[in-house]
Design goal:
alpha+beta; Immunoglobulin-like; five-stranded antiparallel β-sheet; 2 helices; 9 strands; 21% helix; elongated
């Protein structure tokens, strides 16, 4: 009986000791991603591009700079440049809206996709500078390929 009580006491002591060594929640920092949430074509032919900044980390991440080349159905549309200085909460998303004067080739490709009510492939390639809470800014490479579709009832808008 005495050895069983000693074993239980020793086991509890070890668990309490290990629990005291814990440093709190794990701080996981993951690479962020950027994609297009929405593209809206203005009356003047310019684009309003809503970029979706996704933070997969378990800590807040501050986006300092964005520099991305945008292509629409293989046509170079131009560069999306911004210095948003935006902090995105852990495992969350935020949106940054940028304007772009697209190339005439890309403008035609998007106009045709909207007129035909069909999806449009796009790619983003470049980098973003972001910093996790209490850390230095780091450059992350971004390479994203996806598609946008016309939004019913919203002329000139793709999501």
């Amino acid at each position: 009986m005495r050895t069983r009580g000693t074993a239980i006491f020793f086991g509890l002591f070890c668990l309490i000791t290990l629990g005291a060594c814990s440093s709190g929640p794990v701080r996981r920092v993951s690479e962020p991603t950027i994609s297009i949430q929405q593209l809206a074509v203005g009356a003047d032919g310019g684009w309003s591009v809503d970029l979706r900044l996704q933070n997969f980390s378990s800590v807040p991440m501050r986006f300092e700079r964005i520099s991305l080349a945008l292509s629409a159905d293989g046509e170079n549309a131009g560069r999306l440049e911004a210095a948003p200085a935006l902090t995105v909460a852990p495992e969350s998303v935020d949106i940054v809206t940028l304007t772009l004067r697209p190339s005439s080739e890309a403008r035609i490709v998007v106009a045709n996709a909207l007129a035909d009510r069909r999806s449009l492939g796009y790619s983003l390639e470049g980098e973003t500078e972001a910093a996790a809470e209490d850390r230095k800014t780091k450059e992350y490479r971004i390479k994203r390929e996806s598609a946008l579709s016309p939004v019913p009832g919203l002329p000139g808008v793709m999501r």
